[in-house]
Amino acid sequence: MNVAAKLPVRMTTQAFLAWQPRDHRRYQLVDGEPLAMAPAGIIHAFLQNELGSLIRNHLRERGSGCDVLANPGVVPRLLSAHNVRVPDLGVTCAKLLPGQATMAEPLLLIEILSPSNEAKTWSNVRAYTSIPSVREILVLDSSMVAADILRRGGDGVWPDEPERIVAGAFTLESIGLSVALAELYARTGLVA
């Protein structure tokens, strides 16, 4: 059965958020096209859960009033009428509301890079830079011990290239959290 043939063509963000696909897959909307998201690999899922837990605990300990969410929908400013992207994790300090379909005012967005989704992940990262509230984007690698961080400058401009970290710790300045790569990846079997 060709599932792609049954998908709506050139959806709006509003139609996508109201859409109820019958195949029980997760989707994101990319330039008006609903794209199915493959289940996460084990290392990908582990890193998502581990980092999400570290961030949650940090935010609660600080009493920040911010929350970390897994797989939140976000609407980029770029082509917002036809895009709903789904990062692996997002942090917002906006109030969570019942019935809310997408994350309001994301501050920090996190993607976990898998060999099979590299192009899609970096396409999402480019779209996230168009969201005015986003200050920082972290991309973790699930095939090696490595992190890439992009931070919006004080002038509102994003750097041309991410900061690459392969040893030591990375700091999420937007929430004041430092994470040692060796500790984050310790149970993955990947070697620094």
Spatial order of the strands forming the largest sheet: 3-4-5-6-7-8
Note poorly predicted spans: 1-5
- Kindly name the structural category: alpha+beta
The description of the largest β-sheet is:
6 strands, mixed
CATH class of the domain at 40-71 and 87-185: Alpha Beta
Beta-strand content: 25-35%
Could you characterize what this model shows?
This protein is an alpha+beta fold and 192 residues long. The protein is built from four helices and ten strands. The strands form three sheets. Strands 3-4-5-6-7-8 form a six-stranded mixed sheet, sandwiched between helices. A two-stranded antiparallel sheet has the order 1-2. It has a two-stranded antiparallel ribbon with strand order 9-10. The longest helix has 21 residues, at 42-62. It starts with 12 loop residues before the first helix and ends in a 7-residue tail after the last helix.
Helix and strand arrangement:
Elements: H1 13-18, E1 26-30, E2 33-37, H2 42-62, E3 67-70, E4 89-92, E5 106-113, H3 118-128, E6 136-141, E7 147-151, E8 163-165, E9 169-172, E10 177-180, H4 181-185
Parallel strand pairs: 5-6
Antiparallel strand pairs: 1-2, 3-4, 4-5, 6-7, 7-8, 9-10
Give a brief outline of the structure.
With 192 residues, the protein is α+β, with helices and mostly antiparallel strands. The protein is built from 4 helices and 10 strands; from the N terminus they run H-E-E-H-E-E-E-H-E-E-E-E-E-H. The chain has a domain at 40-71 and 87-185: tt1808, chain A, CATH 3.90.1570.
